[in-house]
Each structure stands twice: as C-alpha cells, then as structure tokens.
Amino acid sequence: MKSSMGLRGKYRVERYVGDKHLGGFNLSNAISDSGTNYFLSAAVTAATQLSSWFIGLINSTGFTAASVANTLASHAGWVELTTYSESARPQWSPSLGTKLLTNATATTFTFNAAGVVQGFFVASDSTKNGAAGTLLSLATFRNSGDTADEPKTVTNGEVWRVTYTIEGIND
User: Fold this and answer.
1) What residues contact 18, with CB distance under 8 A and at least 6 apart?
2) Largest distance between two CA atoms of the chain
3) List of residues 6+ apart from 20 with CB closer than 8 A
4) CA of 138: how far to CAs of 34, 45, 80, in Å?
5) 131: which DSSP letter?
6) Whole-model pTM above 0.70?
7) Per-residue model confidence as pLDDT tens digits over 82-122
8) Residue 55 and residue 120 in contact, taking contact as beta carbons nearer than 8 Å
C-alpha cells in the first residue's frame, strides 16, 4: 500500500459595514516550511506544542512575493497590515474535526483606516508586527486579473469575519 499525507488550508472571509453584508470570498493557502516542521516535530518528536495561534494580514503596499520559506522573523517580500482596531492579532481558536482544524466562531478584524489586503497568515505570536513566533501558514492573492483573486480594499469601519480551516489530505 502506498499513501501520502499532506495539509492544505483555506480562509473564508465575510465582509460587513454595519449590518450590511458586502459578500465573502475564499482564499487557499500554503503551509509554510516552518509550519510543516512544527507539525512534524510536535507530532513525532514530542517537541513543545504551541497552543495559541493568531491570524494576521499581509499588506498590499510594498508587496513583492510570499514564499513557504518565509518565517515570521524573515519575509522580505511583504509587511503586515495593522490598520484594524484590535490591539493584537486576533486569535484563531480551532477545534479538531475529522481530519481538519477550524474555528467555529469567526475571528474578527475591525478596520480603523483604509488599506489593501494582499493576504493572510497564521502565527504563534499575537503582537502586531511581532516576529518572535512560528509562521504556520500564509496565503496571498495572485493579481491574476480575475477580480475574485485580486487584493481586497478595505474601508474605515469595515468588519471582516474570518474562518480558517486546515485539512489533512491523503492520496
């Protein structure tokens, strides 16, 4: 018998201004090299388990590239977008389902200034612009010309409710 195992993730975002739902979108992600190493070491070698994870936003301003080789301390092609009113990166609190982890209650970003979101990441450091933790995953829009795949402009007062899911896959 031959089998391989992998992980894939997806962000689901619902956008609101006040009570008005502006729509939503999905964005698939890559598990970073440091995230893959973390999963393997925590599961197999009894490395310290990290129990707190946080969602951050990638700023479109100055964006050139993101890579699975990026770490939270070293990602020259992007910077974090921090124009939201929460004092820290919002916590991602997943529960385990059948071959997946997801947050039942959406994580909220309340924007206090306009900006353009290039993508998302999940990290073990809650500090805005913090670089001390593990980068678990990251996802970026591709600028493909398809409006569904373009960076998203946000306005002051806009609220995003974000659900993030990691799924185990076998083939």
Assistant:
1) 157
2) 55
3) none
4) 11, 24, 12
5) -
6) yes
7) 999 999 999 999 998 888 889 999 999 999 999 999 999 99
8) yes
